[in-house]
Amino acid sequence: MRDMLMRILMNVTDRVGGPMTFRIVLQPMMAALLAIIAGVKDARTGRPPYFWTILTDPGQRADLVREGWKSIARVFFLAIIMDVIYQVIVLRWVYPFEVILVAILLAVVPYLLIRGPVNRLANRLLRKPEATQ
Q1: pLDDT value, residue 1
Q2: Rounded to 5°, angle at Cα 27 from 90 and 76
Q3: Closest C-alpha among 113, 74, 95 to residue 14
Q4: Going by C-beta distance under 8 Å and a sequence separation of 6 or more, which residues neighbour residue 47?
Q5: 133, 57 in Cβ contact below 8 A?
Q6: I need a surface site. Which of 2, 28, 117, 133 has the fewest CB within 10 A?
């Protein structure tokens, strides 16, 4: 088990300097762009921060996860395809768990981390100043 974890760690960290390094920057940027668009939309419609609501409100969780998945699915699948290509070129083998792990790290994590703060920031910027009396 320890050998497998070490191999995964080594293989994931080797992706930073290997071929197709552009995707390490491009895919999180695409996920961030989608998160920014969704966060601003959330602020305009008065919705609470995305990730926090998923964690704390079981009633909205399923709908929010479904909506987020719809938003990020293309970037996620692109991350899967590009990692499979990378593994075939460099490792001459495909490790499915690593493919999923890298896709989550490159697409899902940035989306989850950015959408809520963008919502909060957009709420502050879009909020109309109260009239002074």
Answers
A1: 81
A2: 90
A3: 95
A4: 53, 119
A5: no
A6: 133
Buried b (16+ CB within 10 A) or exposed e, 100-110: eebbebbbbeb
Query: What are the residues whose beta carbons fall under 8 Å from the beta carbon of 61, sequence distance 6 or more?
Result: 53, 54
Say what the pLDDT of residue 133 is: 54
Average of per-residue pLDDT values in the chain: 89
Q: Give residue for tokens 């950015």.
A: 114
The answer to whether the CB of 119 falls within 8 A of the CB of 36 is no
Closest CA to 79 of 118, 8, 4, 22: 22
Q: Which two tokens stand for residue 4?
A: 């497998």
Domain extents in the chain: 22-125
Size (the chain), residues: 133
Residues 6+ apart with CB under 8 A from 15: 21, 24, 83, 86, 102
Structure tokens at 59: 């009633």
Whose tokens are 């989608």? That residue is: 34
Q: Give the integer Cα–Cα distance in Å for 89 and 44.
A: 45
- Closest-CA residue to 119 (of 31, 27, 53): 53
